[in-house]
Design brief:
heterodimer; A: alpha/beta; 6 strands; globular; B: 595 residues; four-stranded mixed sheet; 15 strands
C-alpha cells in the first residue's frame, strides 16, 4: 500500500475543512467552525493511468487557517508529498496571500507538487471572470502545478483536484 | 569752590549723612554675602519652612528632583549597614509577601516553580536514597535462600539488589500495540498488536500522534530541539514515544513500564535504525520499498514479551540454573553450559509446540551436556517418528535419547473424537460445506457435501494422522469452489459502470458460472448490495437493494438462470470490510451458497 501526505494551507475561512469534508465524506455544511490545530482525514484513491492501476491512501492534513501575521506551523507541512493552497475567490485578501503560502510551503517541502484551489466558485456567476482570474494566477505563480476553481458546496472539481494531485505525486516520485 | 562746598553742605547735609549710613549698611551686607558661614546661619532657621512650603505647592517637582538619588541612597545604606536595615524591614516583610502573593500570584508561582521543582526532586532523591539504604541494611541482615537467589539475580542483571526488589514489587505491564511511524510525514510504517487487540484506524493514529508531537515540540518547548514528548498518559494506559532521527516508535501499554521494558524498546528502535536508517529516511509512502518482514519481526519481539512478570520468571529459572551449576562446578564454563542447555530446551519445546500433531502431547525435553532426553507418551509410531525428526532438526548437535513410550488407550479415542468434532465444525462453518462423520473402531466414515477438491484432500490428509484412526472412508461429494465477486460504487451510484461490467464479465468467464449452476443443483448465487453509513438509512437501503438488483439483471443478460439467484440489500458496509475499504463500503458481493 502506498500512502501519501497531503496538506491543505490557506487563509482562515477559505473552505479547507469543507473541501476535505466534501471529498472524504461527501458532505457540506454552511456553518463555519474554525479548525484548531490539525485535523487529519484518510481517503483511498484508485488511480487509473494508462498502464498502471493502483490504490493510494491519502492522509489529508487540514491545518488551521492562519490569520494575518501568524505563520502556519512549518512542522505540519514538513514531509508533505503534495500541497493544496486554498483561497476564497470572493475574498481579495485571501487571493493576495497565495504567494505567501506558496513561499512558506516551498521552505519546508521542496520539490513536491503544489495545487491551487480557488474555492467558493459557486458564488461567482460570471464564468468568464472566473476563467480570467484562474489564468492570471497561473501565470503569476509559476510554482503552481495546477489551478482549479472548486466549490465544496456544489462538489465542483473537488474529486478532480485530489485525484490529479495523487496522480502527480505518484509520477513525480517514481 | 569752598563756597560751593559750604552750600552743598548746607543743602545736602541730611542726604549726605543718609548716604554714609547706606554705604556702611551696604558694605556690611556685602561682607555677609561673602562669608558662607553667615549665610548658612541665617538660612538654618528657615530651611524646614522652605521644604514644607515647596512640598505643599509643588510636590511632583520635589519628587522628581529626589527620586534618582533615592535608589543609590538605599543601595549604599543597605550595603553599609545591612543588619540595621534588616532589623528595620523585618516587621513588615511578612505583610509585604502576603500582599504580593495576593496581587500577583501567577508571577510568584512562575518565579518559584523552577526552584521548587528542583528542591522537591532533590528531596525525593534524598529520601529515596535513605529508603534504599534502609532496605539494603534489612536485606543484608537477613540470610535466606531467597536472598542468595536475589543477590545473584542482581549481579547478573547488573543492578543493585534494592532496585531488583523495587522492580519486582512494581506492577506488571502489557504492551498492547506498537506503531512504527515515519517521523517527517507521520505515515505509518508498521503497526503490530497483541493477539485479541485490534487498533482502530492505525494510519490516523500515526498521523495524529505526529501532529501532536509537532504541536508540543513547537509550542511548548519552543527554542529547544533537545526536548521530546515522551509519554501520553490516559488512565491506566500509556502511549510511550521513543524517537530516533528518521522514525519513532509509539507504544501503547497498560500498567507502568519498568526500566527493563524501556531498555528493550530503545534496543528495538536502535536495531531498526541501525539496519534501515537510509531506507526509512527515503521512505516515500510505499511500504514495499522497506524490508517489512524484518521490521515486523523486530516489532513483534516487543509484543511477545508479556511484560515484567514473565520476564522475571524467565530470569528466575535462568538464575536458578546458574546456581545449580555453581553449586556443582562453579566455573565460568559451567555458567555458559547452563545457558546453552536452557536455550536448547526452549528451542526444542518450541518446535514441538509449533507442530500441530505433537502439540497435544506432554513430551518432556531435558538437555544435559551433549545429549537430549525425551520422555512422555505417544499413541502412534508415526507420531514418534515425527517427534524424532522434529527434535533432530531443532537440536542438530545433540545426541537424542528417546525414552518416549508408545501407548494406545481409551483416552486417545476420546481425544481424537473431540479433535474430529472441532475440525468438522470448522469446515462446516464455511459456506457450502456440510460434512458429517462416524468414528467407530478406528474407522472414520465421512459423508455429505464439501466445496472444492483441494479442501477435501486436505481434510482427508489431516484426519488420517489423528491418533487412533486406522482408516478413513470418504463418501463426501465435492462441488467446485466458485469464487465470490465484489464490486465498488461511487456515492449515490447503483448502476454498473463499464469497469464493473468488465469485472463481472471476467468473473462469469473464469468461474464458468452458467455451467457450474447447471451441473450442481445444490448451489445458488446470493447477491448482496451494501451501502456506506453516511446519510439516511432508508435511502441507503433503497440504494443497496438497487445495487444488488442491477447485478442480477446484468447476470440474467449474460445467461445466468434467474431462478438460481437471490438478492438482498443491506444498508451498511459489509462485515468483512469495515476499515480501510475503498468507497466506505459502497459495494455489492456475489456469493455461492448451498441450497
Amino acid at each position: 500500500m502506498i500512502t501519501k501526505k497531503v496538506v491543505l494551507v490557506g487563509d482562515f475561512a477559505t473552505g479547507k475543512t469543507s473541501l476535505i469534508r466534501r471529498y472524504v465524506d461527501n458532505q457540506f455544511s454552511d456553518d463555519y467552525l474554525t479548525t484548531i490545530g490539525v485535523k487529519i482525514s484518510k481517503k483511498t484513491v484508485l488511480l487509473h493511468a494508462a498502464e498502471l492501476k493502483m490504490e493510494i491512501q491519502l492522509m489529508v492534513w487540514d491545518i488551521e487557517g492562519n490569520t494575518t501575521g501568524k505563520p502556519t506551523n512549518p512542522a505540519y507541512i514538513t514531509g508533505a508529498h503534495g500541497l493544496v493552497v486554498v483561497a476564497d475567490c470572493t475574498r481579495q485578501s485571501s487571493i493576495e496571500n497565495i504567494g505567501m503560502h506558496i513561499q512558506e510551503c516551498r521552505k519546508v517541502a521542496k520539490d513536491v507538487p503544489i495545487f491551487l484551489a480557488l474555492n467558493k466558485s459557486d458564488l461567482i456567476e460570471d464564468a468568464g471572470e472566473l476563467e480570467a482570474l484562474l489564468r492570471r494566477l497561473k501565470t503569476r505563480y509559476e510554482q503552481l502545478e495546477s489551478v482549479f476553481a472548486t466549490s465544496a458546496k456544489e462538489g465542483i472539481n473537488v474529486e478532480n483536484i485530489f485525484t490529479d494531485l495523487a496522480q502527480s505525486m505518484i509520477t513525480k516520485r517514481q | 569752590m569752598d563756597e560751593y562746598g559750604k552750600l552743598r553742605g548746607l543743602l545736602l547735609n541730611q542726604e549726605q549723612q543718609e548716604i554714609a549710613l547706606l554705604q556702611t549698611a551696604l558694605e556690611s551686607l556685602l561682607e555677609e554675602t561673602r562669608d558662607p558661614e553667615q549665610i548658612v546661619q541665617k538660612l538654618v532657621p528657615l530651611i524646614s519652612k522652605i521644604f514644607s512650603l515647596t512640598l505643599q505647592n509643588n510636590k511632583t517637582e520635589f519628587v522628581e528632583i529626589f527620586s534618582p538619588v533615592i535608589g543609590e541612597l538605599l543601595q549604599d545604606t543597605i550595603k553599609n549597614s545591612s543588619t540595621e536595615i534588616a532589623i528595620i524591614m523585618a516587621p513588615i516583610m511578612g505583610k509585604a509577601i502576603k500582599e504580593v502573593v495576593k496581587n500577583e500570584r501567577d508571577e510568584i508561582v512562575d518565579a518559584l516553580y523552577p526552584v521548587i521543582g528542583n528542591m522537591i526532586s532533590k528531596f525525593v532523591a534524598e529520601t529515596f536514597k535513605e529508603l534504599m539504604q534502609e532496605i539494603n541494611q534489612k536485606v543484608q541482615s537477613t540470610f535466606s535462600f531467597e536472598m542468595i537467589k536475589r543477590k545473584i539475580t542482581a549481579k547478573v542483571k547488573g543492578i543493585s539488589e534494592t532496585e531488583l526488589l523495587l522492580q519486582n514489587s512494581s506492577h506488571p505491564y502489557m504492551i498492547q500495540s506498537v506503531f512504527l511511524i515515519h517521523k517527517e510525514t507521520g505515515i505509518l510504517i508498521s503497526e503490530r498488536s497483541a493477539s485479541g487487540i485490534e487498533s482502530i484506524e492505525p494510519e490516523m493514529v500515526a498521523s495524529m500522534l505526529t501532529a501532536i508531537r509537532s504541536f508540543v515540540n513547537d509550542w511548548i518547548s519552543k527554542n529547544s530541539d533537545h526536548f521530546e514528548l515522551n509519554e501520553i498518559e490516559f488512565g491506566n494506559s500509556t502511549i510511550r514515544l521513543e524517537v530516533a532521527g528518521c522514525c519513532y516508535l509509539a507504544i501503547v501499554l497498560k500498567g507502568s513500564i519498568n526500566r527493563d521494558g524501556q531498555q528493550r524498546i530503545v534496543k528495538v528502535l536502535e536495531k531498526l535504525v541501525e539496519n534501515n536508517a537510509q531506507t526509512i529516511t527515503e521512505f516515500d509512502g510505499n511500504t514495499q520499498s522497506l524490508p517489512m518482514q524484518e521490521i515486523n519481526s523486530e516489532l513483534d519481539t516487543l509484543i511477545q514479551h508479556e511484560g515484567h512478570e514473565t520476564s522475571s520468571k524467565k530470569g528466575g529459572s535462568w538464575v536458578l540454573a546458574i546456581i545449580a551449576v555453581l553449586l556443582i562446578g562453579g566455573s565460568g564454563f559451567g555458567l555458559y553450559q547452563a545457558y546453552l542447555s536452557d536455550a536448547a530446551e526452549t528451542k526444542a519445546r518450541l518446535s514441538l509446540y509449533k507442530d500441530p500433531h505433537l502439540s497435544l502431547y506432554a513430551i518432556d525435553v531435558k538437555v544435559d551436556g551433549s545429549s537430549a532426553v525425551l520422555r512422555g507418551r505417544l499413541p502412534a509410531e508415526s507420531l514418534q517418528k515425527r517427534l524424532l525428526k522434529n527434535i533432530s532438526q531443532a537440536l542438530p548437535e545433540f545426541i537424542i535419547d528417546n525414552q518416549v513410550v508408545l501407548t494406545e488407550s481409551v483416552p486417545i479415542y476420546e481425544q481424537s473424537l473431540s479433535i474430529l468434532k472441532a475440525v468438522v465444525d470448522t469446515i462446516n462453518s464455511e459456506e457450502g460445506n456440510r460434512v458429517r462423520f462416524q468414528f467407530e473402531e478406528g474407522i472414520l466414515k465421512l459423508n455429505g457435501l464439501i466445496r472444492g477438491h483441494h479442501i477435501h484432500e486436505e481434510l482427508l490428509k489431516s484426519l488420517s494422522t489423528l491418533p487412533g484412526v486406522t482408516r478413513v472412508v470418504s463418501a463426501l461429494k465435492e462441488y467446485p469452489a466458485g469464487k465470490a465477486a465484489e464490486l465498488f460504487y461511487e456515492v449515490g451510484e447503483s448502476a454498473l459502470n463499464a469497469e464493473n461490467k468488465a469485472l463481472l464479465d471476467d468473473w462469469i468467464e473464469t468461474n464458468a458460472v452458467a455451467t457450474l449452476l447447471k451441473l450442481y443443483d445444490g448451489i445458488d448465487l446470493l447477491i448482496i448490495g451494501y451501502s456506506d453509513i453516511q446519510g439516511n438509512t432508508v435511502n441507503n437501503a433503497v440504494i443497496a437493494k438497487k445495487r444488488a438488483q442491477n447485478v442480477v439483471e446484468y447476470l440474467i443478460e449474460k445467461g445466468v438462470a434467474q431462478d438460481r439467484m437471490t438478492n438482498i440489500g443491506v444498508p451498511a458496509p459489509p462485515e468483512n470490510s469495515i476499515n480501510g475499504v475503498p468507497h466506505s463500503g459502497r459495494s455489492s458481493q456475489i456469493k455461492w451458497v448451498k441450497r
